[in-house]
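The pair is quoted verbatim as follows:
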Amino acid sequence: MSGATAAGGALAALVLASAAACARQPERGDEPAGQVAGADSGAGAAADTGAGPAAASAPDSGSDSTNSAARPAERSSPQSGGAARPAEQGVPVATPVRGTVRVVGSSPFTRVELRPEGGGPALTLAGDTAALRRAAALVVEARGVPSADGRELQVERFAVVAANGEPVLDGFLRRDGDGLALETATGRVRLGNPPAALRDQVGARVWIGGPPATGPNPYGVLVPAP
């Protein structure tokens, strides 16, 4: 009986030891699991530094609250390029056109047109039409802004360049000592033998043909003397 009792006691002690060992295994297993988690989430260690909330909110970056700051930038991106340039908006620019001036229509409903050299539809001229009317049948180079449909030209300036197929000068008549000179856009040109009638037109804008130094000089008045 004493031997059986001793054996039973030894068995009971072994069972208790095994139970105690099993009870301690979860505690030992928790420690490696905690170390793995810490290694996988370096952000987990940074969670205490303030980086954690940002990382935690990353999966929810599709939320309205997160994208609300980005949306204004996205909406404004088409405007960030600034307003379109005039050329992109179709704003017309001053354009030079060369052609013959015509006064058409019946009085008092006449209009001034420019028939471009080389053909093409006539342009209705607007602007300083008084001077342009005096340039009827002459070839001019006009610079101005075309209308949206391209049928009209708002003339900013023009110069008579030819009359009866011959080149002419366009400018203001000035006194030059005892003689006369024509002040053009490129400088003064002395008139060596001007028509006598031109002496009464000092200050007028005129066109003059023929050789300036010797004449004869056909001419026409575009803007009378003041």
